[in-house]
Amino acid sequence: MPPPSLTAANDRVAAAASAANGHAGPDARRRAGKGKKVHPLPADGAAMGDGAGGERLAGGRRPMDWLSPAGVAGILRRHPLPALFACGLLLFMGVEYTIPMVPAAAPPLDLGFHATAAMHAGIAARPWLNSLLAALNTVFVAMQAAYILWAVLAEQRPRAAIATLMMFTCRGLLGCSTQLPLPAEFLGSGMDFPMGNVSFFLFYSGHVAGAVIASIDMRRVGRRRLAVLYDTLNLLQFVRLLACRGHYTIDLAVGVGAGLVFDMLAGWYLDSKNIDSGDNRCCSSCQKALVSQKLTS
């Protein structure tokens, strides 16, 4: 009589051979199928993609199944944000055909101006307050510039500086290409940036975009509290520019998007130069130049 260990080994070999031949016992089949998610075939038994059964999606669903009440409910449950945007699309498709256009002789319609009408009246009645807010805003712009210069000069992280150069160049091109009229209620100040109450009304807001670029860079290196401070000051700047009629609402909203877009473009540029825009302190071409200088010296 063979020992128990040899008998157990023979049983395992026999079970493996039986499973390989498609004759696994019920216990083996249960173990093999455990943990696997099985999608049952449709009632007609047609395979996925079978022409006789119609085109099917993953899981055996037909495309029209998504239009059923259960399918729509599933989409709303799993993808609420795209569903919200789809509702917005339908809403504004109707708005486009029904909203009256502003007459040529009338001033532009800006809902942000209406929302800040009371604040505008208060600032207009107090010129000293207008100058104080303008001075504080100029200090914030200087803070943005100081941080971006520190990042590129002291920390040798050029991404924010490259994004800012791209952003202001594009802003100048767009602002000169299509010039919107200066609001009749504009409250200028000699303390505003640019200093001296010179014209700065260009599409889009460089004030807002620069703050966004600095905030993104702060988050990239883990300075989250400083980024929250800049975001808060940027929001206050947003409201102040509206109240003083320094920008239209669309200028400020696009300024936020411009900061995001040009930071991304600067990252792509640095990636194309084989530069790690996060931790590396210098680009590959600069490193080669430094190495060559050391070799020649």
TrEMBL record:
Pfam families xrefs: AtPDCT1_2 (PF24788)
Region ranges (Disordered): 1-54
Biased composition (Low complexity): 8-25
Entry keyword annotation includes Transmembrane: yes
Molecular function GO terms recorded: diacylglycerol cholinephosphotransferase activity
Domain of life: Eukaryota
Annotated signal peptide: none
Keyword Transmembrane recorded: yes
Keywords: Membrane, Transmembrane, Transmembrane helix
Domain AtPDCT1/2 transmembrane stretches: 109-267
Membrane-crossing segments per the record: 81-99, 132-153, 160-180, 200-216, 248-270
Protein name: AtPDCT1/2 transmembrane domain-containing protein
